[in-house]
Write a structure and sequence with these properties.
binds pentane-1,5-diamine; 7-stranded mixed beta sheet; single chain
Length: 360
């Protein structure tokens, strides 16, 4: 008896020690240079468990259920805001974040809305939601003046009917596609009332037959391989697709444009769940990300802008110099942001999205 419980106690102690040595991070897919994951382990001695997702809704379901087991998660600002309100996160201990001074005030001024004072989160990366095209295929089908910089490309059924043959995918992200549909018909993309929200549905249903798939990560390869010719997706993902095609030397030329009518500008924020098993390790990971060199390496790899001012001089010219990544003043003025849906509006949006995806 005594022997058994001694063994058990030893096993528990080992498990606990092991637990404290692990840091579990849940981040978006295609969102980091994996060399950084090894570097974190080497520098800190922690074992890093790094899982990925491609949907705010999936992350939110895990977070709100509790016991996700993650130490760091990365919701988009508008989702973070309501998750903070729901008590999903713990306040950051800034005394453990010696690199916090590297944050960029320009980005902080914008993320204030979601997390006042940055009490719960740091910006990881930000970007826009826009249009990726296979330039050759789209101009072959719609002509040289194909509206590749306009929402007309993806919301005008006449264009979409023709493009269906070469393949069009949309993000499976209702909180981004519905605002874009509203923007297209001149409504407020951040509308929350049901009457306005409902106006997005006929816009989406009209092009639904021509959308091959709603998915939030497959389009990177599909566009690069030439399997699809249009993706309504995320800026950096489409630029990664452009690079993959270039590296494959397969003759596919991919271009990304934020729609001229206005694009959604979003901010992905790193935060620590209230029940994180390794709070110390979570801070170590955040501080590692806040390092200027690490952050520059991540942005240079995935083609997304970041919230780290100290990293700017270390960014590659094709990152800091690309207005699709770091928008110029003129583009910046056309970008819009969104705020969270309250529970009732969220249910309305979720139901609409189910109908749109199933085409019913
Ligand atoms: C990375 C996608 C991150 C942008 N693949 C979504 N907020």
């Amino acid at each position: 008896m005594i022997k058994t419980s001694a063994i058990l106690a030893a096993a528990v102690a080992t498990a606990q020690a092991g637990w404290a040595q692990e840091v579990r991070v849940y981040n978006w897919s295609d969102y980091i240079d994996e060399d950084l994951l090894t570097k974190f382990e080497e520098e800190t001695g922690y074992e890093l468990i790094y899982d990925v997702f491609d949907s705010n809704e999936v992350l939110e379901t895990k977070l709100l259920a509790g016991g996700s087991g993650y130490d760091v998660v990365v919701p988009t600002g508008s989702f973070l805001q309501r998750q903070i309100a729901a008590g999903a996160f713990q306040e950051l201990d800034k005394s453990k974040l010696s690199n916090i001074g590297n944050l960029w005030d320009v980005v902080q001024a914008r993320t204030e809305t979601y997390d006042p004072g940055g009490s719960y989160s740091i910006n990881y990366m930000w970007g826009t939601t826009g249009i990726g095209v296979n330039v050759e295929k789209v101009t072959e089908i719609l002509g040289e003046d194909a509206p590749i910089t306009s929402l007309d490309l993806i919301f005008d059924p006449a264009n979409m009917e023709k493009l269906a043959a070469c393949g069009v995918q949309f993000l499976d992200a209702p909180a981004e596609i519905i605002p874009a549909a509203l923007q297209y018909i001149g409504e407020d993309p951040d509308a929350k009332d049901e009457e306005t929200l409902a106006k997005a549905e006929p816009v989406l249903q009209a092009v639904r037959p021509y959308v091959q798939k709603f998915h939030s990560s497959e389009y990177i390869s599909a566009l690069a391989n030439g399997d699809i010719c249009v993706a309504f997706g995320w800026s950096g993902d489409i630029l990664q697709s452009r690079d993959r095609a270039f590296e494959a030397d397969n003759g596919v030329e991919v271009a990304y444009n934020p729609p001229a009518e206005g694009a959604l500008m979003w901010f992905d924020q790193m935060a620590i769940p209230v029940d994180a098993p390794n709070v110390e390790g979570a801070h170590a990971f955040l501080n590692f990300i806040l390092d200027a060199e690490n952050m520059a390496q991540a942005s240079n790899y995935v083609y997304y802008a970041n919230g780290n001012a100290a990293s700017i001089p270390l960014l590659a010219e094709d990152v800091i110099g690309d207005p699709a990544i770091y928008p110029d003043e003129a583009t910046l003025k056309t970008l819009y942001t969104t705020t969270p849906y309250e529970a009732r509006a969220q249910r309305f949006v979720t139901r609409m999205w189910t109908r749109v995806k199933s085409g019913t």
